[in-house]
Amino acid sequence: MSVAFYIVLDAEEPGFDTFVNGKAIAHADDLDAFCVKHGLPVLESFVSQSLEEFEDMLDEDLELPEGESDQAQWFDAEEGVNYVDALISALRKEPDGIESSADVIDELLECKAVLEQAQAIDAKWRLALDF
Asked: What is the pLDDT of residue 59?
């Protein structure tokens, strides 16, 4: 099974390609510990999917606890650019901090390019997982 992170925008037709590979990032098992060590949020804190997306992914109906939202959470593109910049900077300072750091940095640069374009059109974003 191949797992990958991908970027979702709140703009259906943003006018640019939003594809990022996301496989090296998803397979970097030591990335969470690296983020914590450097005072950064873990990447999964930007993952958000609606109840409908979870149901489609699992192919079953789900019921949320009372008071929980069935909608995905969106983030400002500027926040994403700043986060990716900080993570890239930390990885460049400590390239041995995680396995395959060069591949992860390459994918983070792809993410940054998409987020900068999203910022230019004032779009919100979130991460999702592809299984």
From this structure: 56
Q: Which domain holds residue 116?
A: 7-58+73-130
Query: Distance of alpha carbon 116 from its chain centroid, rounded?
Result: 14
Question: Whole-angstrom Cα distance, residue 8 to residue 96?
Answer: 30
pLDDT in tens, 73-114: 999 999 999 999 999 999 999 999 999 999 999 999 999 999
The two structure tokens encoding residue 120 = 């230019």
**Which residues lie below 8 Å from residue 45, measured CB to CB, with a gap of 6+?**
none
The answer to whether position 64 is within a domain reads no
Q: How far apart are alpha carbons 117 and 60 in whole angstroms?
A: 35
CB atoms < 10 A from the CB of 6, how many? 17
In the chain the first and final C-alpha atoms are separated, in Å, by 7
Burial, 116: exposed, middle or buried (Cβ in 10 Å; 0-12, 13-18, 19+)?
middle
**Is residue 25 in some structural domain?**
yes
CA-based max dimension of the chain: 45
Which has the closest alpha carbon to 128: 91, 74, 79? Answer: 74
